[in-house]
Amino acid sequence: MKPKTYILQKDIFFAKAGDEFIETGTNSMSYLHKQTWCQLSVDVIENNPEWFKLKEEEREKIQISSSIYKCGMTGKTIFNYQINLSKCLRDDTVSKIQEAIQKIVNDD
Q1: Nearest-5° Cα angle at 73, 68 to 79
Q2: Regarding predicted confidence, which is higher, 86 or 76?
Q3: How would DSSP label each residue in 19-32?
Q4: pTM recorded for the entire structure
């Protein structure tokens, strides 16, 4: 599990609004200011939502690559799509994706 990161909402004496405070490890008792290395307690960071906002994790996007070529024997255009995922999917999710692609390709 990634350490939590909080974004400072207002300037304080050693940090500016927008600066990040990162959890110092598993079962940590403090958060570390990335720029100055100053630490604040978990209680200060997590119990002051007007001062610190939990940073939303950015969702990784699906990468799709494709290639188009002519088949030498038939002269037909062949499309090759490859989908690279940054995380594992359940089998039922994979089959739903395959079904959706087949519907689009077959004009269903």
Answers
A1: 20
A2: 76
A3: -EEEE-STT-SEEE
A4: 0.51
